[in-house]
Amino acid sequence: MTKIKKEKTATEEEAGTTEKSYQDLIANINPVANPLASRKLSKKLYKCVKKAAKLQQIRRGVKEVQKFINKGETGIVVLAGDTLPIDVYCHLPVMCEDRNLPYAYIPSKVDLGSSAGSKRPTCVIMIKPHEEYKEAYDECCPQGGSLVFSSKCSRLTFVRIEQSEELCSRRFTPFFVPLVQMEAAL
Would you say the C-alpha torsion 109, 114, 116, 120 has a positive or negative sign? Predict the structure, then answer.
């Protein structure tokens, strides 16, 4: 009369998993998905999105994120790298750079939507800063810093804006200066 739980064998567990590895997800990203967050940073961003969603401190979707970027709201913009067509959200990184907002691409819109507590995939989310999850937010983007993509190392690095003023005076934008030049200038 009682149900007996079956133990799964190793082959059943492999066949039953629907999670894709980070490398499988990277294979499906768009060519414009730069800077792509590393596996470690992606996990931190997912955790921060989960905490912000519980407190309703996120903006979800292209229209809503674009509207609040134009209004001057601050936060981290997280874009999904596997969104098609690219024209849907290709203008958002330019808007973020104009307003000095940190942004990063993550490999999966399905994972981004599920971390926000939605059953639907989401291509863009803005995480607003809040005191409840300040530690997780600062791990993703420290205060006074901005996301800088290093093409030489192909990873994300944070550089304080005050330290990169010399490079900005040479008509470099801090978003496209390779890390080697940053270290040489500092």
Answer: positive
